[in-house]
Each structure stands twice: as C-alpha cells, then as structure tokens.
Amino acid sequence: MANILAIDDDAAILRLIKKMLEMKNHTVTTIQDIKDITIAEINKHHLLLLDVMMPGEDGFDICTKIRPLIHIPIIFMTAKSDESSIIKGLSIGGDDYIIKPFSIHEVNARIEAHLRREARPKREAASAFIDNNIFIDLEAKKVIFQGQEITLTKIQYKICELLALHKGKVFSKEGIYEAVYSMDSDSQISTVVEHIRVIRKKFAQYNLSPINTVWGVGYIWE
Amino acid sequence: MANILAIDDDAAILRLIKKMLEMKNHTVTTIQDIKDITIAEINKHHLLLLDVMMPGEDGFDICTKIRPLIHIPIIFMTAKSDESSIIKGLSIGGDDYIIKPFSIHEVNARIEAHLRREARPKREAASAFIDNNIFIDLEAKKVIFQGQEITLTKIQYKICELLALHKGKVFSKEGIYEAVYSMDSDSQISTVVEHIRVIRKKFAQYNLSPINTVWGVGYIWE
DNA sequence: TTCAATGTTGATAGAGTCTTGATGTTTTAT
DNA sequence: ATAAAACATCAAGACTCTATCAACATTGAA
Predict the structure, then answer these.
(1) Residues B145 and B94 both lie in one domain
(2) Residues of B with CB below 8 A from A44's CB?
(3) C or N: which end of chain A has fewer Cβ atoms within 10 Å?
(4) Which secondary-structure segment (H or E) carries A187?
C-alpha cells in the first residue's frame, strides 16, 4: 500500500489509473499539470507515474529537470512505443517504461516490483560502485578502476569512501576530519588538504578527477 | 561498468549477451547451470540476467528460491511474452522482464537504469522548491535549472535563496546586506549591487532573469 | 633497532572570490 | 529638457581560501 502520484494531462486516464490502483489499496494522487505540485510534495509519495506527451513541458523534460531532486522511482506511461523513446526515457532517469495501451495487471505487477525494491533493505554490499565506473570494495577497503586497484593508504581510503558513498554531498574539511579521525587525535585541518591532494594525484594517473572543490565550503565527489 | 551475471542454458545466447555487454565495458560472468554458483558468489555481482525456460529448474523456480538471499536486481530475459508470464516474473521477485528477441540498446538502457538506481543514494526528501522552473536545493545549497547547476559562489547563492524564498517581496540593498553578511563585516552597500549584477549575468546564460529592480526600493524575485 | 612507508606541518605560490571606485546608463522630478 | 538620483557596468586589486611542496615526525614491519 503506497502513495502513488500520477501526472497526465488526460483526466480520463488519470481516473482509470486512480481507480485501478485504489482497488489494490494504494493511495493515488492525480495531477494534470506539474506546476500544481512541489518537489517536496512529490518526494512524499512512493512512486511517480509520468505521462510523456503533454502540452507544454513533456514528461521527458520534467524528468530531466526533477530527477536530481526526486528519490522515488519514476515510471513513464506513454503511447510512444518506438525504441528510441524507450531508451531515452530510461536514459534520462526513468526507472521503467510502460507502453499505452497497457494491461492493468502488468502495470500493477511492475508497480509492485518497484515498491518491493524500494523496500528491499540495502545490505552492506561487499562492493559499491560509484558512477558505474569506480568500484569501492568495502570489505577489502580497496578502490578499483577498470579491474585495477588504485592503491590508497588507510586514511586516503577512508576519505574516498566517505566522499564516494555520499557523492553529491559537500563535506567541509572539518567534517572529513571528524569522520575519518578518532576523537582524541588532534592534527591540523590542513592535513586533510594534503590527503586530498595525494588522492587526486593517484586518481589522475587514471585520468580520473572525482573530487571537486566547493569554494569556501569543502570537497565533493561527483 | 558493472559485474553482471547471466544464467541461460543456451551457450550461444550467453556468448551474445557477453559480447554485447562487454562492448559497454561491463564485466560479464556466464553460467549455464545455477548449480555452478553459490549465493555468495551471485551477490558479488551487481545484476543478474536470468533466463526462464531452462531444463530442470526454470528461471522462475530459481528466482523464487534465491530472491530472499539475493540483493541485486534480477532481470528475466525470455521468449515467454504472454502477459501472465510477465506478471508472474515480476510478482515472484523479478525487477524487470525483457522479451526475446531483444533490442541490444533497450537491454543496455534497462541495465543502466537498474544500475543507476542501485547507486542512487536513499535520501530524505530534499528541502527544495521550484520557481520559474528554477530549483533551489536548500540542503545542497545549489541552484539547478533544467537539471544543470547554475554555479554560484557562497554570497551569490545566499542572495538568491533570500530573494527566491520570499519571491514577490522587495528587499532593499541594506536588507540584503544584513541578511547575507555577518554582523561584524563592514563592506559598502554597493557590493550588493555588484553581486546582483553577476547573479543576473549567470542566469542570463540560461535566458533567465528572475531578479527585477524596484526603483528606489530594492530588488525582487518574481 | 632499523628502515621504509605513511602522516603531519608550515611556508609559499596560486586560484578564486569579494570589494571598491570610476564611469556610463536609466529613471524620476522639476 | 535638464538635472539629480538611483542603478548598472567594468576593471583593478585586495582579500581569502586552496594547492603544492619539502621537511620533519610517526608508525609499522622486518
């Protein structure tokens, strides 16, 4: 039983979806215009059904725009059945793509699959992959790029793990220091700067530069 | 670049899948019999492609059995295209269902979507809001337009946040100064004017001009 | 204990940001 | 129409934060 948000310009389709999903005991909010809802409100739902062909801003545009801020699955529902549209939809951040006219049962099965997956506890993965590109082996405490290990020292690895597992979040030097060092240690903050430099140097050997500087704030992995 | 496991009884199909995904820089392990691999080994991969029709235990049986122990996405790949099979596959724990013969590009797009989703950090709803299609992420302290960040410096961002959060309200230069600067700083008011100019310039690159001048009073976001 | 690897520090160069004043432009009031 | 006031623009340089490097300290393994 989830809160599902459906956005479509066609009121009849919205009614159908709503009726159908409410029969499965979901709560459904329907919206005809994206402007009627805020990002925060979207995130309060568990899943977003998004029509593609709408007057003005279409579903692809909306997805591109909101995806970085939305943390729920986005499922496109559209009559556009050509392969390039499917690929586009999935590429810009869609989690699934359902073609109209759709089978009520399949839609429901797909929604259930997505909801189940959201609920699935993220076990402590032995390896996390960042950007589909850099692997971080949390057990072995290693960073691997294209099958090759980028050898890091303990502190260097810890900093990388912290930043990489929270990619997109800015960490201040102080924040990094506190996360990586034990309470009682009292080095100067500038050691963090030095570690960052060495880490960057090592990554640069592989033409990687994942750590960016946010001026006056700190460092960010992106 | 992920470690992908493909299970199918047909060696030819496995070769095809392997070749295709390796072209996309994934690492692919192929298995013809589920008995050749352990649960722990499966979990070391990032995604499982599972054939349905196999002699002995079929894909559905396997999925049912291992799903509670497997934490990676499972994608069925099968020629069984009838609705009830799709629904069954998704119901018993499959995360997606691809029908043979498949489009290489669509398979890849779906795999990418699943991998991206695994990498997606589970975050609280970001406290962000929209205005004129401009997103302001109060947590990340970023301004985003059409998925792209408009890079602002610290002070520039603060001014934008102040104005945008109170859109429709006019702020005097003095008001902006006091809101953005710390007590003890004593710059001239004209620096605010300069900041506004640079902010406008940055927004103008995207054909945006959210900040208007109210003569003799101050600035307003609308 | 010794040596090599790693971690820390401070000095300095470098890059990014902020501020200022001079100057040009637009608006308002007379 | 003109002057005064408010705002916009620009470039220079002051300022702040970051990157780099080399020297020194510490740790850990042989």
Answers:
(1) no
(2) 125
(3) N
(4) none
Distance CA A115, CA A63 (A): 19
The shortest C-alpha distance from A83 to chain B (Å) reads 7
Cis peptide bond prior to A210, omega within 30° of 0 = no
- φ and ψ at residue B29, rounded to 5 degrees: -105, 130
- For A211, the domain range is 128-221
d(CA B99, CA B81): 6
Q: Look at the block and give the residue holding tokens 């979040």.
A: A169
Domain boundary among A119, A148, A171: A119
Alpha-carbon gap, residue A118 to A113, rounded angstroms: 9
Cβ distance A126 to B27 less than 8 Å, yes or no, reads no
- The CATH code of the domain that includes A159 is 1.10.10.10
Clarify whether residues B10 and B102 are in a common domain: yes
CA distance B74 to B98: 11
Give the model confidence (pLDDT) of A109-157 as tens digits. 999 999 988 877 665 555 666 765 788 888 778 898 877 889 999 999 9
The predicted-structure confidence for B103-142, as pLDDT tens digits, reads as follows 888 999 999 999 888 877 665 545 566 666 788 877 678 8
Same domain, B112 and B8: yes
Is the domain of A18 the same as that of A59? yes
Angstrom distance (rounded) from CA A161 to CA A140: 12
Task: Sort out which chain A residues have CB atoms less than 8 A from B2's CB and list them.
Answer: 129, 132
- Identify from A62, A65, A80, A215 which residue to disrupt to test chain B contact, counting B C-beta atoms within 10 A and taking the largest count: A65
Partner residue facing B122 (CB), from A68, A71, A167: A71
Tell me how close the Cα of A43 comes to any Cα of chain B, in angstroms.
6
Largest Cα–Cα distance of chain A, in whole Å?
65
Query: Nearest Cα to B72, choosing from B57, B93, B51?
Result: B93
Number of compact structural domains in chain A? 2
Please state, in angstroms and rounded to a whole number, the distance separating the CA atoms of residues A3 and A206. 44
Q: With beta carbons less than 8 A apart as the criterion, state whether B90 and B97 touch.
A: yes
Q: Check whether residue B154 and residue B193 sit in a common domain.
A: yes
